[in-house]
Design brief:
Blueprint lengths: L28 H4 L3 H21 L11 H7 L11 H12 L21 H13 L10 H18 L6 E5 L2 H16 L4 H4 L10 E6 L6 H8 L7 E4 L9 H13 L3 E8 L11 H11 L2 E5 L24 E4 L1 H4 L7 E5 L2 H8 L32 H35 L4 E3 L7 E6 L17 H18 L6 E5 L2 E7 L7 H23 L4 H8 L4
Parallel strand pairs: 2-3, 2-4, 4-5, 5-6
Antiparallel strand pairs: 1-7, 6-7, 8-9, 9-11, 10-11
Helix pairs in contact: 2-4, 5-14, 6-14, 7-9, 7-13, 10-11, 14-16, 15-16
Length: 542
C-alpha cells in the first residue's frame, strides 16, 4: 500500500511539537487569516446578508416577537472551547441575531433620534475596522488624522461655523457635551482647575451651568455629574411659549446666582430641542454670555445640520458666536453609530484641557508644522477611525444630496402636523421646526372637560394614561415605533422623523394607525357605550 501524504484523513496525528515550530496550543496566524479567495467569499456573503436585510426593512416588525427571556435563552451558551468555521459564524447573524433584534433602520421607526444607517457608511465602518488604525497619534495614523481634520472643517462649513475651528469626533452627544463642559470649565474657572481640581482651596461657590427648563437634554446634567459638579449645578432657565429659552431670564438668573456666591461658567443653547425640535434664540444667548463672561456651548446634536438649508438658516442666527458646538452625524446625517462630534472655536483650549503626555509618547505637536495628535484634543487615547464613514457619506451625497433628504424629513413632519390639526381627536402643541413633533390623542368629547364621567379622575390624568397605553399598543403591533414624552407637565406622543427611508406614505400610515389604536384603547379604558367610541367614527379621521 502506498504511503499516504500529510493531507490524508488516515494520516496519524504527529506527537510533540511540530518541526515547523508551530505550537499545539492554538491555531497559527495563517489558519486565522484566510487565503485571499476564501476571505473574498466571506466578504461577498457578508454583503449578500446586508443587502437582503436592507431589502427586508419595510416588511419586518420593528420589535422582535420573542420575549426578552426567550431571546436571552437563544444566546445562553457556555464559553466556546473549540472554534467554528467562519462561514458558519457569519451565518449566525442572519439566523439568530437579526430575528431577535429591533430594526431601527425601518422607515417607520419614529422613536428617539436615531440615524437610519447609510449603506456606504456601513461599508466604511467595515473598511475602517479591517484597517484597524489608532487615530491618536498622527505618526501612526497620517491619512486618518488628515481625514478627521478635513471632516471637522467640512462639518463646520456645512452649518456655518468658522472652518478655522478645532474639534474631533467622539462616540455621541453625551461624550461631546461632556467634553465641551470640561473645556468650558477649564477656560472659565478663576484658577487652574486642570491642576488643582474642584478641591482647590481657592474655589469659592458652586460652578453652575444653564440650560432651558424642560427642553434641556439629559446629557447636560449627566455631563455635570461626570465632572463631579453635581447634577444640581445645572440651573433651569424658563422657556417661552415656543419652547425656546428666555434669554432675558437667563441674564437675571445668572446675576442672581453670582450675587448668591455661585460661579456661573457656561450657558447651553440648543439647536433642535429633544421634545419639539425648537431652536433657541442663539444670538440673544450669545449676547448674554458675552456680557456675563460665560462660555456659550451650543448643543446642536439634534438639529445642527438644518443650518445647511437656506430656508432654515435665519433660525440659526448667532450659531457662529458659540464657543463650542455639539453635533451628531449619527443622527441627522443618517450614519451608523457611534459618531458624535464637537467643534471648538479655539482649538488651543481643547489642547490645554486634555493635553497630557507620558514618557513613552514622543511629542510631535510641539513643532509648528506638526499635524494633529487627537489624543491631546479629547478624552480618548486609543481612537477608532470614525471619520471614514463621515468622509465617504459626504463624498457620496454632497451637501445638495443631504439637503434633499432633510427636506424629505421636514415634508413628512409637516404632513403629520396637518393631519393632527385637521382631526378633532388630536391636539397639536407646537408648529414643527425640524423633524421632531409632539402632539397627543384627545377624544373630542373630552375637550374642555374637567373630569371623565364614571372614572373619577381628571381629564388630564386620563389623557396621560390613554396616550401611554396608545403608544404601548401601537408599538406592540410591530408596524411602527414611537415614544411618549412630557411637554411642561403634559404627556404627549413624540415622533422623530430622522430616517432617509421615511416617506409621506409612512407618515400617513403612522397617523391612521394612531387614530384606530386611540379609538380602540379609549373604548377599552372607558368601557362600551361611551360617547367617544360612537361619535368619533362619525367625525371621520381614518
Amino acid at each position: 500500500m502506498p504511503a499516504r501524504g500529510p493531507g490524508s484523513r488516515r494520516t496519524p496525528p504527529r506527537r510533540g511539537r511540530p518541526a515547523s515550530g508551530r505550537s499545539r496550543v492554538g491555531p497559527a496566524f495563517w489558519d486565522i487569516d484566510l487565503p485571499p479567495e476564501r476571505f473574498r467569499r466571506l466578504g461577498y456573503r457578508t454583503v449578500d446578508q446586508l443587502a437582503t436585510y436592507y431589502a427586508s426593512l419595510r416588511r419586518r416588525p420593528i420589535l422582535p416577537r420573542a420575549s426578552p427571556s426567550a431571546i436571552r435563552d437563544v444566546f445562553d451558551e457556555p464559553l466556546p472551547r473549540r472554534g467554528m468555521d467562519p462561514f458558519r459564524v457569519l451565518d449566525l447573524w442572519s439566523r439568530v441575531v437579526v430575528p431577535n433584534s429591533a430594526h431601527l433602520g425601518s422607515p417607520r421607526f419614529f422613536g428617539y433620534v436615531h440615524g437610519s444607517g447609510l449603506q456606504v457608511a456601513a461599508l466604511a465602518d467595515a473598511l475602517a475596522a479591517g484597517q484597524n488604525p489608532n487615530v491618536a497619534d498622527s505618526r501612526i495614523s497620517p491619512a486618518e488624522s488628515a481625514i478627521e481634520a478635513q471632516v471637522i472643517r467640512w462639518l463646520a462649513t456645512m452649518i456655518g461655523y468658522p472652518a478655522s475651528c478645532g474639534g474631533l469626533l467622539v462616540s455621541g452627544g453625551m461624550a461631546a457635551n461632556h467634553t465641551a463642559l470640561q473645556v468650558a470649565l477649564r477656560a472659565r474657572a478663576p484658577y487652574d482647575s486642570a491642576r488643582e481640581g474642584l478641591q482647590s482651596r481657592r474655589r469659592r461657590g458652586r460652578f453652575t451651568v444653564y440650560v432651558a427648563e424642560y427642553e434641556g437634554h439629559v446629557t447636560i446634567p449627566r455631563a455635570a455629574d461626570l465632572l463631579n459638579l453635581g447634577r444640581d449645578a445645572v440651573r433651569p432657565v424658563p422657556i417661552r411659549d415656543d419652547f425656546t429659552m428666555d434669554a432675558q431670564a437667563l441674564r437675571r438668573i445668572v446675576r442672581a446666582d453670582r450675587s448668591a456666591g455661585a460661579i456661573p461658567f457656561c450657558a447651553v443653547g440648543q439647536a433642535g430641542t429633544i421634545n419639539v425640535g425648537a431652536v433657541d434664540p442663539l444670538a440673544a444667548i450669545a449676547k448674554v454670555c458675552r456680557a456675563e463672561n460665560l462660555w456659550f456651548h451650543l448643543d446642536a446634536a439634534v438639529g445642527a445640520f438644518g443650518a445647511a438649508l437656506p430656508e432654515l438658516r435665519p433660525r440659526y442666527a448667532g450659531l457662529a458666536r458659540a464657543d463650542s458646538v455639539t453635533l451628531d452625524p449619527h443622527k441627522w446625517l443618517y450614519l451608523p453609530k457611534e459618531c458624535g462630534g464637537l467643534l471648538v472655536k479655539d482649538e488651543a483650549l481643547l489642547r490645554s484641557a486634555f493635553g497630557m503626555e507620558a514618557a513613552y509618547l514622543e511629542r510631535q505637536d510641539l513643532r509648528r508644522t506638526a499635524p494633529k495628535n487627537y489624543r491631546s484634543l479629547g478624552p480618548q487615547s486609543s481612537r477608532g477611525f470614525r471619520a471614514l464613514k463621515v468622509w465617504m457619506a459626504l463624498k457620496q451625497l454632497g451637501v445638495d444630496g443631504y439637503c434633499r433628504l432633510f427636506r424629505q424629513n421636514l415634508a413628512c413632519t409637516a404632513h403629520l402636523d396637518r393631519r393632527v390639526r385637521g382631526d378633532p381627536d388630536f391636539e397639536a402643541f407646537h408648529e414643527p421646526t425640524l423633524y421632531i413633533y409632539s402632539f397627543r390623542y384627545v377624544p373630542h368629547d373630552l375637550r374642555g372637560a374637567g373630569y371623565v364621567p364614571g372614572l373619577g379622575v381628571t381629564t388630564e390624568q386620563y389623557l396621560a394614561r390613554l396616550n401611554r397605553a396608545l403608544v404601548e399598543e401601537a408599538n406592540r403591533g410591530g408596524e411602527v415605533f414611537l415614544t411618549t414624552t412630557r411637554l411642561r407637565e403634559t404627556t404627549a406622543l413624540r415622533v422623530s422623523i430622522c430616517n432617509h427611508r421615511t416617506t409621506i406614505d409612512d407618515t400617513e400610515r403612522l397617523f391612521r394607525l394612531l387614530k384606530r389604536t386611540g379609538q380602540r384603547v379609549d373604548h377599552a379604558l372607558r368601557g362600551p357605550g361611551t360617547r367617544a367610541h360612537t361619535s368619533s367614527r362619525r367625525a371621520g379621521g381614518a
